[in-house]
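Quick one, probably user error.
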């Protein structure tokens, strides 16, 4: 079970500061994803916190957010700052919940990892040693 965050507002931004946001809620969970697309975007894996749409507020930089929208069969868009390239996760106006990249968080969300998703897709050179539950599905999405 994740502890409640210590702060009521979690701030986030991109590397250059053009995109800024706030999360006003506990977040659902923090997950590591090892799928091939997350690895290509973030390295060995991506760390994301799932947030509810009503808890997310974009403060600045909407005009700087760019999205990579893949062709079928891939379904997850990738949002990033068009100035500095920082990954933002997948902030959305039409999804009830979406992932926000932990790398864009300025404050501790108060959550700790609960899952390694698509662990079978991790690179051979990376060993998972933290004891967090692993879901092996070999997803390439």
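Nope, works fine. Designed sequence:
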């Amino acid at each position: 079970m994740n502890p409640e965050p210590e702060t009521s507002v979690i701030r986030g931004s991109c590397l250059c500061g053009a995109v800024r946001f706030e999360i006003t809620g506990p977040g659902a969970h923090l997950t590591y994803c090892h799928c091939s697309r997350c690895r290509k975007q973030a390295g060995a894996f991506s760390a994301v916190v799932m947030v509810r749409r009503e808890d997310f507020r974009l403060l600045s930089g909407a005009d700087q957010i760019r999205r990579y929208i893949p062709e079928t069969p891939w379904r997850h868009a990738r949002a990033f700052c068009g100035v500095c390239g920082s990954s933002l996760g997948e902030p959305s106006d039409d999804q009830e919940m979406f992932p926000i990249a932990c790398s864009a968080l300025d404050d501790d969300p108060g959550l700790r990892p609960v899952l390694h998703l698509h662990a079978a897709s991790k690179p051979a050179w990376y060993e998972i040693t933290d004891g967090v539950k692993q879901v092996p599905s070999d997803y390439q999405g």
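The longest strand covers residues 46-52.
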